[in-house]
Structure formats: structure tokens, C-alpha cells
Design goal:
The structure holds two protein chains of two kinds. Chain A has helices spanning 2-8, 12-15, 84-97, 138-141, 170-176; strands at residues 26-30, 36-40, 43-45, 49-52, 61-66, 72-78, 102-112, 115-124, 127-136, 142-144, 150-153, 159-162. Chain A is of the alpha+beta class. In chain A, a hairpin with a 2-residue loop joins strand 2 (36-40) and strand 3. By secondary structure, chain B is α+β, with helices and mostly antiparallel strands. Chain B has three domains: 4-97, PH-domain like; 134-447, ABC transporter transmembrane region fold (Up-down Bundle), CATH 1.20.1560.10; 464-542 and 662-712, 3-Layer(aba) Sandwich (Rossmann fold), CATH 3.40.50. A six-stranded mixed beta sheet of chain B has the order 13-16-17-10-18-19, sandwiched between helices. Chain B has a four-stranded antiparallel beta sheet with strand order 1-2-3-4, covered by helices on one side. In chain B, helix 16 crosses helix 18. The chains are: A alpha+beta, B alpha+beta. The A-B interface holds A 31-35, 46-47, 49, 55, 69, 95-100, 110, 112-115, 117, 123-124, 127, 129, 132, 134, 136, 138-139, 155-159, 177-179, 181 and B 11, 13, 15-17, 53, 55-58, 60, 62, 69-72, 75, 77-79, 81, 116, 119-120, 126-127, 129, 134, 315-316, 318-319, 322-323, 325-326, 360, 436-437, 440-441, 676. Bound molecules: adenosine-5'-diphosphate and magnesium ion (MG). Adenosine-5'-diphosphate is lined by residues 241, 476, 482, 500, 502-508 of chain B.
């Protein structure tokens, strides 16, 4: 049944071109100034911005590439379509735009007059450090990404990700538990 | 004196945590370093502009060089974002003016005690802000009501003490008259009567004090509410837009209500119990020291158990509270968007979403009730131990004739007074915490500094003069400029049209003229007087404005038109309505100008709404009229009707009009084309068309989509 209907009304993707970048004609490179540039179909864009369309659900696909003036040049369907070298340049740039350190431990959680103060052990596997942060409106700023992942946004707008709630040590989980739902 | 601006950043170029600094000194040198490793040195003379780009959770600082290249200076987390914006401003100011402003210690404020950075917009560290200081402040505000609250407190104490006399009477009755069997029946009657009277008197005084308490707490809450409301009215748009309307409403209504409840219930109860506890303790100690100690044996156990229990149940109640607020917000959302839900046929989906949330809430609540039901009797059991000990030990003593029966009866009666508060102590911390949180939320509003400052002696010149923008830059966030270096003179009586893509900053220019925000750089003046020297109230009274989304208040059409000038005469109201082409449709309604609109009232169409808004704006006979996409949501025909009336009204007034449909602005004396926060083109319609620039392209694009626009 459903298939028959689909045939009658073709999906929007046929009608609207979302402007994929032809990766064969594209070359991402590092500029001397410390940015990422793109040479594409005869043009040289010397500072591009990469944005994820689905930073939470699907971070490695549908990447928008915009020029200096924030005009979209086109989209990359999937990072896996890139050559190895290009892949690493694009991924590095993405990781510099999306900064959300992993939370390894929740050292303390204190409810203070409507704000929640947390002491977190964050960073990457090879370098962890402590960070004090304050949260306002916990019901909005502690958000489950899926059944097991969690994102915490503090008052400054920094984001911290708990990759696996079930993988968290017991004490950390206990401290966090009252704020989850 | 060598000053240096410093910006401290917290990530290295590979996004690893680091402690780095960018410094900027009087010689114009900009150095980025981590520890003693210098990463980069630039000279301000080679730079055109310093900018910040915000990413997600992080940002970067970079320099646009004179040779058009761009150089990255450093990266940082959002914690340093604001400081980065400030730092940029200082350098850009230097680049533009060659003036080095000395730093005024604008580092991010941190708490002196714990070193945590203060949350933006707050003057105290909530982490260290202890409950005592909140309480002290709340009490300070309570002072005007002391005349009521203190006597009420006194009455309350009296009534408690009278109550506490009853066990003493009991002892007297037993030991003096009954046990030795030497009392007469009159004596017994008198004593029993005295006990009865004491109770009755206590009850009376109690009722009286409750009433006074309630009154005082209502007045106090009203007082707070008015303070908060007044403050909200005075706050600038930038402070207000940080919070949602719902949040502000909750602060004014619910939070003040919480405080009231606390004073009339929780707080009063606490004071009463404290008095009882102390008085009973004294009486007991004087009557029998040993037995008193026995009474107190279970107290430490109970206290420890209670605080454990409190922590346990607190977390669960917190969760229940959150689930409850989630249910409410789902409901709120759906009811607001019910038209969309129905139009998309998603009722079932929404029902499921809501019932899932309520199911969860029901689950948590019933779990909590179950825990409560299981644990509370346990608490009672502990206090039962004390009663047991007193009865057992006291009974032994009576048998040994070392204690009188009266004393034992008196003790077992007092035990209830000592333990009752303990039992309720479980809920007290929650009441207190709730009241404190509400109190702090109210204080937060009261403490907010209005950032649009009104000078004590404003120079309110007539607004019919020239409006000038000189080098005006502005951004809603310090690191994201929306307007950059706007220079513009608007002659008196001139009609200016502003065009540009959406998001170009058109409405922002209006916001600045209305002084809803102050520019970050540059000045705006009318008749040569800086807007900052005028009072915002004066400005708002003399500028008429029509927005795209018109807000009409619940009330009559008459009241809505006269909103801008409540003292307007009927003639004026009709004149304004006629000028705005609203008169005819108003007269079509049964109730004419007395027609009630708003909730449950007469519903009016978008075009009618807009005409009312125009009438409301011009009834003040403003010298400056602003139309911000006033007719954009209307169909072309209605627009042309309104346009006619506007053309009439605009005569002799300085008018600034923003419109999507360029044909609307045909009659403008000059058009300003805004692009990326800068003025890209200025000229009449014909001049701009000849220029074949942005305006030309916009016109052509609109012609393509609508054949009607016979422009030029
Ligand atoms: N209150 C606000 N807070 C933060 N950013 C805002 C606010 N109002 C507008 N902006 C931003 O400022 C820019 C210009 O907005 P605006 O002047 O409303 O544009 P328009 O030309 O469409 O009227 C937009 O990028 C918009 O997102
Ligand atoms: Mg606008």
C-alpha cells in the first residue's frame, strides 16, 4: 500500500536539489592563517564554515559548507565519500566548530537556589581535567540524546556530553539521577 | 604607566585545554602566548578588523589583515566568549581611532570566596550565597509589616504558652486533689473549668493571630509583587528578552505566592514550634531532670534518621515536581497550538505524548506515596521509644514512691509537644528551600540594573528635528555585530524607506531610534541632542510605531486606539480611526467603538488589526512615525487601501518605513539599502534603479514573482 502511494507522489528530493558538492572537483585545504579553505569549481574560498545538519542524530553525514559570508556553497552527503586526506581535514575542522568534551565523572552536584552547580571531570581520553559549571533550568539543560547519551549545557553555553549513562560509575550516576527523566 | 589589555583563553589551537593569553599594549602589539611560548605576534596597524566567530560550545578570535588575509589568534570555550567580544571592541576602537582606552578591569567577575565565575547578570555567587543572607534580606523587606507581624507572633506565643499550661493543671489536679483524695468537688470543678477556659482562650487568641498573620503575609506578597512588576516595566528590552514571558509571569505571581505561603504557614509554624519547644524544655527540666533526659534519648536517632530520610525523599519529590512541570508544559504547548495539531490530524499522537507523560508522573507520585507510607510509621516508631522509656522508668519510680503520678502524666503529655515538631521537620526543609528559591528569583529581578539609563535632568527637545546616526555600531551579543558603522541623516519631514534582506538589521535600526537598546559605538541624535540625554519615556511618547505583528489588548476598540493617549477625546479617536481607514469597519460592528476584542471577544482580521495599530500610533500625533513592515502581512488590495491612508498621515512627519514589498516604498523621499549591517546604497527609487546594484536586483526579483508590481 505505502509503496503505491509513494509512486504517485514522488518524494521532495526529486523536486528540490539540495546542492551536493561534487567532491571530484573539490579540494579542502588548510590556510596559512589557521583556517580551512576550499577550492571548488574554479573558485577559491579561503575561509569556510562547516555545519552539521544533524549534529546529534547523524554527525557524519549532511555537512553544510558555507563561505565567509555564510552563504552555503553546498553540502557533503557523507564524510565517508571523501578521500582519506580530505576526510581528516574536514573532520578536524568540524571538531573545531563543535566542541563538547566528554564527561568522565560527576564529582559533585549541588542545588543552589534554583541553579545547579556541578563539578565535572571532562576532556578526552588522554587528558582529563576538572571543571566547575553552573546550570540554569535543569529540565532544559540536561537533555537525553538517546537512551544512553546525555548532553549538559551550562549557563555560558558550553556543552558536555555523557557518552554512556550506563557506563558511568555508580557514584556519578547517583549524583545525576535526580535530574534525569 | 604601562597598561595592557589581556584576554585569557582556555583552548589551544588543537582544542586541548590550555591557559593562554592574548595581550594588547599601547604600542599596538598583539601577542598570543601560552605559558612562555609565543604563538603569534601581530601589529594593530596591519589589521583592518578583529572578529570573533562563535561555534557550538566554542569560539575563535581572528584578525582581518589589511592585505585581506585572515589570521586565527586563538580558540576558547563559551566561558570566554564575552571577554573575547570585549577584547575585540577595544582593539577595533584602537584601529579606528588610534586611541588606546585604558582597561577598566572588565575581567569576568568571579566569586571572592569560591573562585567560581559569577553567572551573567547576577551580582552574587549563588554557590556561596547562603540561606541566611537571603533570609536576612527577606526580613528586611518584611520590616514595614513588623507592626502587624510582631504582635501576631506575640499572640501566637501567648496562645502556645496558655496551651502549655494545661498539663501543669493536670498535674496539679492529680497530685494535689485526686491522689491524696483531699480535694473538694468545687476545687476539682474550678480546676477542670480553668483547664477548659485556658484551652478556649488559647484557641481564640490563636484564631486572632492567624488572621493578622494572613493579612500581613498577603500584604507582604503584594508588596513584593508590585516591586517586581514595577521593575519589569522599567527594565530594558535587552534584560527582558533574556527571559521568557512565562518566566517573568511566574516570578511575579507564583514566586511571590510561595513566599506568602511560607510566611503564613511554614514560617509561622516554625516560630510557633520553636517557642513551644523551648518553653516545654524549660518546664520539663525544672520538673524532673532525669525524666527529661529520657525524653531526649531518641532525639539524636530521630534527627539522624530524619535527615537521611529527607535526602532520600527530597530527590524523589524533586523528580515528581519535574515530571509535573513537564506535563504542564506539554499541555500548555498543545493547547496553544491546537489549530496546527488539528490541521495536521495529529490528535492521536498528541494524546499519546501527553498520556505517556501523565503515566510517568502517576508512577513517580505513587512510588513516592508508597515510600512515604512505609517510612513515616518507622519515624513514629522511633519517637515511641522515648514515650516507652519515660513511662517505664517513671512507672517504676511511682511504684517506689519517688515520683508522683501527676508528674508522670504531665511528662507524657509534654512528650507529644516535643516530638510533634520533629515529625513535621521532614517537610520543613522543603518549604524553606522552596521559599528561598522563590525569594532569590524575585531578588534577581529586583537587583537587575536597567542598562538603558535615564539621566536625572533629561534634555527632551522636540523630536521634529533632524535624526542623525554617526558611526553607529550595535550587536545584541557583544561578539555578533548586527549594525556596523551606520552614518545617516534623516531630514525633518522626510520619508525614509529602509530595504534589505530579512536579518539585515532593519528592525534593529528602529530599536535603536526607540532607545530600546543603546548603540555599542557611535551616537544617534535628534536635533543635535544625543538620545542618551533624553528620557526613554519621552521618546516613546512622541514616536508612533506600527509593527508587523500587532498586539491588541483585551478591551474595547476605543481603548485600544486610545492606548497611546488615554486622555484623547472621542473626536480624536474617530479622527485617528478615519485617518487609518479603520472607521468604516468599526462602524459595521454592532457595538461600534465599544466592541470588545481580545480573548473571547470579537475577532478581527489581519487587515483590520493593522489599521487599528496605525490609528493607535497616530493618535499621539507623533513627530516621528515608524512603520516596521506594517503592511507586510496583508494582501495587496488591503495594503493599497492602508497605503492611501498612510500617505495622508505621513505628510509633514519624519517617517521611517520598512517594507518587504518594494512598491510600498515608492513614495519615499530616499531609500536606504541595508546589507550585512552596513548601508550599501542610498537614493531615490529611480536613482537606485539606474545604479543597478542591490536594490535593482531586489526589484527585479520581486517583479519576477509578482507581475502586479508596476514599479518605476
Ligand atoms: N532580541 C534579539 N536578540 C538577539 N539577536 C537578535 C534580536 N533581534 C534580532 N536579532 C538578530 O539581529 C539580526 C538583525 O535582525 P533584524 O534587525 O530584526 O532584521 P530585519 O532586517 O529582518 O528586521 C538578525 O540576525 C537577528 O537574528
Ligand atoms: Mg524586521
Amino acid at each position: 500500500m505505502e509503496k503505491a502511494i509513494q509512486k504517485e507522489a514522488p518524494s521532495l528530493a526529486y523536486a528540490i536539489d539540495i546542492g551536493m558538492i561534487d567532491l571530484k572537483n573539490a579540494e579542502f585545504y588548510m590556510t596559512t592563517g589557521g583556517f580551512t579553505g576550499l577550492k571548488y569549481s574554479g573558485q577559491d574560498y579561503n575561509r569556510i564554515t562547516l555545519r552539521r545538519a544533524f549534529p546529534i542524530g547523524n554527525p557524519m553525514e549532511y555537512i553544510s559548507v558555507a563561505d565567509k559570508d555564510n552563504k552555503e556553497i553546498g553540502m557533503i552527503r557523507s564524510l565517508s565519500d571523501l578521500s582519506e586526506k580530505q576526510y581528516s581535514i574536514v573532520l578536524t575542522e568540524l571538531e573545531k566548530r563543535y566542541y563538547s568534551p566528554t564527561v568522565y565523572e560527576v564529582k559533585s552536584v549541588k542545588d543552589k537556589l534554583g541553579y545547579v552547580y556541578m563539578e565535572l571531570l571532562i576532556g578526552r581520553d588522554d587528558s582529563k581535567y576538572k571543571k566547575n559549571c553552573a546550570l540554569k533550568d535543569v529540565s532544559k539543560n540536561i537533555r537525553m540524546l538517546d537512551d544512553d547519551r546525555l548532553i549538559i549545557t551550562d549557563v555560558d553555553g558550553n556543552r558536555y556530553i555523557i557518552q554512556s549513562l550506563s557506563g558511568l560509575d555508580k557514584k556519578s550516576f547517583k549524583r545525576l539521577e535526580p535530574y534525569l527523566f | 604607566m604601562s597598561h595592557k589589555h589581556e584576554f585569557h583563553y582556555d583552548l589551544d589551537l588543537a582544542m586541548q585545554p590550555a591557559k593562554g593569553t592574548v595581550s594588547f599594549d599601547q604600542t599596538g602589539q598583539i601577542i598570543s602566548f601560552i605559558g612562555d611560548k609565543i604563538l603569534l605576534t601581530l601589529c594593530a596597524g596591519d589589521i583592518t578588523e578583529m572578529s570573533v566567530i562563535g561555534g557550538v560550545g566554542c569560539g575563535l578570535l581572528f584578525a582581518k589583515m589589511n592585505d585581506e588575509s585572515e589570521i586565527l589568534l586563538c580558540r576558547f570555550t563559551f566561558s570566554a566568549m564575552k571577554a573575547a567580544g570585549e577584547f575585540c571592541k577595544v582593539i577595533n576602537f584602537y584601529i579606528q581611532t588610534k586611541q588606546y582606552v585604558t582597561p577598566e578591569e572588565k575581567e569576568q567577575p568571579v566569586c571572592e570566596k569560591c573562585g567560581r565565575p559569577l553567572i551573567e547578570g547576577m551580582s552574587v555567587c549563588l554557590f556561596c550565597y547562603n540561606k541566611i543572607s537571603v533570609l536576612k534580606r527577606a526580613l528586611d523587606l518584611l520590616r514595614p509589616f513588623a507592626g502587624k507581624i510582631l504582635p501576631a507572633e506575640l499572640f501566637l506565643a501567648t496562645s502556645s504558652i496558655i496551651y502549655l499550661l494545661v498539663p501543669l493543671f493536670s498535674r496539679l489536679l492529680i497530685d494535689e486533689y485526686l491522689r491524696p483524695m483531699k480535694g473538694t468537688s468545687t476545687q476539682v470543678f474550678l480546676l477542670a473549668g480553668a483547664m477548659f477556659l485556658a484551652r478556649a482562650l488559647g484557641e481564640l487568641i490563636y484564631i486572632f493571630s492567624s488572621r493578622v498573620f494572613n493579612e500581613a503575609s498577603i500584604q507582604y506578597a503584594n508588596h513584593l509583587r508590585n516591586l517586581a512588576y514595577e521593575k519589569i516595566q522599567k527594565l530594558s528590552m535587552s534584560s527582558l528578552s533574556k527571559r521568557t514571558p512565562g518566566d517573568l509571569i511566574r516570578r511575579v505571581m507564583e514566586d511571590t505566592g510561595n513566599v506568602r505561603n511560607f510566611i503564613s504557614d511554614g514560617g509561622r509554624w516554625a516560630v510557633e514550634q520553636m517557642i513551644i519547644f523551648v518553653v516545654v524544655l524549660i518546664i520539663l527540666l525544672f520538673t524532673n531532670f532525669e525524666l527529661t533526659l529520657l525524653v531526649f534519648i531518641p532525639v539524636p536517632v530521630v534527627s539522624i534518621a530524619l535527615s537521611r530520610f529527607w535526602r532520600f525523599i527530597h530527590i524523589r519529590y524533586e523528580r515528581q515536581w519535574r515530571k509535573n512541570s513537564k506535563c504542564q508544559s506539554i499541555l500548555h504547548d498543545i493547547i496553544k497550538g491546537i489549530r496546527t495539531v488539528k490541521a495536521f490530524g495529529k490528535e492521536d499522537m498528541e494524546i499519546q505524548k501527553f498520556s505517556k507523560a501523565t503515566r510517568e508522573l502517576a508512577q513517580v507520585s505513587s512510588d513516592n506515596e508508597a515510600i512515604w507510607a512505609r517510612l513515616f510509621p518507622l519515624m513514629l516508631f522511633f519517637t515511641g521509644i522515648g514515650e516507652f522509656l519515660v513511662l517505664y522508668y517513671g512507672g517504676q519510680k511511682i511504684l517506689n514512691n519517688t515520683l508522683s503520678l501527676g508528674v508522670l502524666v504531665q511528662f507524657s503529655m509534654y512528650i507529644t509537644y516535643i516530638y510533634a515538631p520533629l515529625r513535621w521537620l521532614v517537610s520543613f526543609p522543603r518549604w524553606l528551600a522552596d521559599a528561598m528559591t522563590s525569594m532569590v528569583k524575585i531578588f534577581e529581578i529586583l537587583d537587575e540594573e536597567p542598562d538603558i539609563i535615564s539621566l536625572p535632568n533629561p534634555k527632551n527637545v522636540p523630536l521634529s528635528g533632524k535624526v542623525s546616526f554617526e558611526g553607529v555600531s550595535f550587536g545584541y551579543k557583544s561578539y555578533e555585530p548586527v549594525l556596523k558603522g551606520i552614518d545617516l541623516d534623516i531630514q525633518p519631514g522626510e520619508m525614509i524607506g529602509i530595504v534589505g534582506r530579512s536579518g539585515a538589521g532593519k528592525s534593529t535600526i528602529i530599536n535603536l531610534i526607540m532607545r530600546l537598546y543603546d548603540p555599542t559605538q557611535g551616537t544617534i541624535s535628534i536635533n543635535g541632542v544625543d538620545l542618551k540625554e533624553m528620557s526613554p519615556e519621552y521618546l516613546h511618547e512622541n514616536i508612533g510605531i506600527v509593527f508587523q505583528d500587532t498586539f491588541l489588548f483585551a478591551g474595547s476598540l476605543y481603548e485600544n486606539i486610545a492606548y497611546g493617549k488615554p486622555e484623547a477625546t472621542a473626536t480624536e479617536v474617530i479622527a485617528a480611526a478615519k485617518a487609518a481607514n479603520a472607521h468604516d469597519f468599526i462602524m459595521q460592528t454592532a457595538d461600534g467603538y465599544n466592541t470588545i476584542i481580545g480573548e473571547n471577544g470579537h475577532s478581527i482580521s489581519g487587515g483590520e488589526r493593522q489599521r487599528l495599530a496605525i490609528a493607535r500610533a497616530i493618535i499621539k500625533n507623533p513627530s516621528i512615525l515608524i512603520l516596521d513592515e506594517a503592511t507586510s502581512s496583508l494582501d495587496v488590495e488591503t495594503e493599497s487601501i492602508i497605503q492611501d491612508s498612510l500617505n495622508r498621515i505621513v505628510q509633514g512627519r519624519t517617517t521611517i518605513a520598512i517594507a518587504h514589498r518594494l512598491s510600498t516604498l515608492r513614495s519615499a523621499d530616499r531609500l536606504i539599502v541595508l546589507d550585512q549591517g552596513k548601508i550599501a546604497e542610498v537614493g531615490t527609487h529611480t536613482e537606485l534603479l539606474k545604479e543597478k546594484g542591490i536594490y535593482y536586483r531586489l526589484v527585479m526579483a520581486q517583479r519576477k514573482t509578482s507581475k502586479i508590481a508596476e514599479v518605476s
